[in-house]
Amino acid sequence: MWSASIFTLYPEMFPGPLGHSMAGTALEKGLWALEAKNIREHGLGRHRAVDDTPAGGGPGMVLRADVLAASLDAGLTPDDPRPRLLMSPRGTPLTQKMVRAFAGGPGLVIVCGRFEGVDERVIEGRGLTEVSVGDYILSGGEIAALTLLDSCVRLLPGVMGKDESGAEESFEGGLLEYPHYTRPREWEGRTIPETLLSGDHARIARWRREQAEKLTRERRPDLARKADEA
Question: How many CA atoms lie less than 13 Å away from 151 in the CB half-sphere?
């Protein structure tokens, strides 16, 4: 079974939205498993301290290496084959290719950072790979972890209604997804493109490809360049 272990100061944030819709149904059916481990259980002293001031000075606090390492060591076996990730704005940008690789594996171990960051020594000492969900800053890694998990879980066998549902989505073929339409045929003076009503599947496929290429050129020229180079 594909399983995720989350190390966080706020385990009550999980499963959160992943307890609903397709991911929640799949969780209930046992198609994947989730456990959230509280880093603070390994905090120091009467107040279970988990952070300290930055070496060299500066604002904020830093998650201690000894505390996080103790949490990881207690919560994981040495032979756990799952990738160990740290959600971090300085990490490798998450892509659909990475998501497919993660979804095809045994699961994930995800560390949710807080404060100004995590002591660099535990990142090195416990083999954490930093992953980013975008060029912006969040209050902590939990929302980023939920994003990553959702992107993986929906690709697991049996989660989506049809396996082909994910095959034509944005980023799967290096392009953004084509526009979608449904009933009514006319709405506020806007009509469904006649091509989609033609019943000619080859013509429809060409139209969708053209629209996907057009949208990608307009909105994500970086992806369009990669597609042209491929």
Answer: 21
Give me 195's structure tokens: 């091509």
d(CA 109, CA 85): 6
Other beta carbons within 10 angstroms of residue 206's beta carbon come to 12
Tell me the pairing of strands 84-93 and 186-187: unpaired
Give, for all 230 residues of the chain, the pLDDT tens digit: 999 999 999 999 999 999 999 999 999 999 999 999 999 999 999 999 999 999 999 999 999 999 999 999 999 999 999 999 999 999 999 999 999 999 999 999 999 999 999 999 999 999 999 999 999 999 999 999 999 999 999 999 999 976 555 566 667 778 999 999 999 999 999 999 999 999 999 999 999 999 999 999 999 999 998 888 86
Alpha helices in the chain (DSSP H): 21-29, 65-75, 96-103, 120-125, 142-153, 201-219, 221-229
How far is 118 from 61, CA to CA, in rounded Å? Answer: 9
Backbone angles phi, psi at 194, to 5 degrees: -60, -30
Map tokens 């599947």 to a residue: 201
Cis-peptide into 78, omega within 30 deg: no
